[in-house]
Amino acid sequence: RGSTTPIAGTEFLITDSRGTVIGPDNGKYVTDADGRIVIHGLTPGITVTVRETKAAEGYLYDGTPQSIAIQSGEAQALTFYNAPLQTLIVQKLASDSGEALAGVSFHVTDQDGRPIGTSNGDYVTDQNGQIVIENLSPGMTVSVKETQTVSGYVLDNEARSILIKEGEAQTLTILNSPKGSLTVRKLDSLTDQPLPGAEFRVTTVQGEAVADNEGHTSANGIFRTDDNGQFTIANIQPGIYTVTETKAP
Asked: Are strands 170-176 and 130-136 parallel, antiparallel or unpaired?
């Protein structure tokens, strides 16, 4: 098994072959700083069954019992192995600059759709653009889905899955593309001078009116050129838009 580390604080239930508990604490034993439990005074010929009841913090529980016959004149030993629980790091970056994006929300579940963590599976990236999820069992599959992004970026709502492996932390990197912008200019056809006060309606190809300020300001799709004969809609979703003049200056 390669290098091993003694694990203190693992709880066991120890009984004989008839199911009678052994020891003064109703059969309960806890490993010491050396990861050991030492039981004296066992009668030769009996069979002892040892079952892990609670793993130490940070380790995967293993409930498979082991039994051993006690022999006269020699000490017997049973060895149990616990795999360490693992960590998943979700890294959120801007696709154009590689900048870490703080404040992006995710929903995290296991392979059966059950939320992971203490907040019903909801996480938000920190100032480093990361979510750190600890105490994951090796062999499980974790699903990560972005639910809300930050201003100026396109939501990536594709769910991604990753297998948690034993002995190493996993990193899942998800990129956000920046939104685009649209500038409309209105000019005099003879002089090419900019024309303020022209009115336009901007819609998606499906006919939906475009709102300003990433959808926070409703203008029913109506925009007017400024003193420079233009208007700009910033931070809009990539796609095809229709621009129709509704009123000349």
From this structure: unpaired
Q: Are 125 and 101 in contact (CB under 8 A)?
A: yes
75, with CB counted inside 10 A (0-12, 13-18, 19+), is exposed
- Residues pairing with 151 in the sheet: none
Q: Tell me: the pLDDT tens digits for 27-43?
A: 999 999 999 999 999 99
Amino acid symbol at 191: T
Residues 184, 221 contacting (CB under 8 angstroms): no
For residue 91, what is the enclosing H or E element? strand 86-94
Report pLDDT digits (tens) over 117-169.
Answer: 999 999 999 999 999 999 999 999 999 999 999 999 999 999 999 999 987 78
Rounded to whole angstroms, the Cα distance separating 71 from 136 reads 40
pTM, two decimal places: 0.73
Residue 174: both structure tokens together: 């998800």
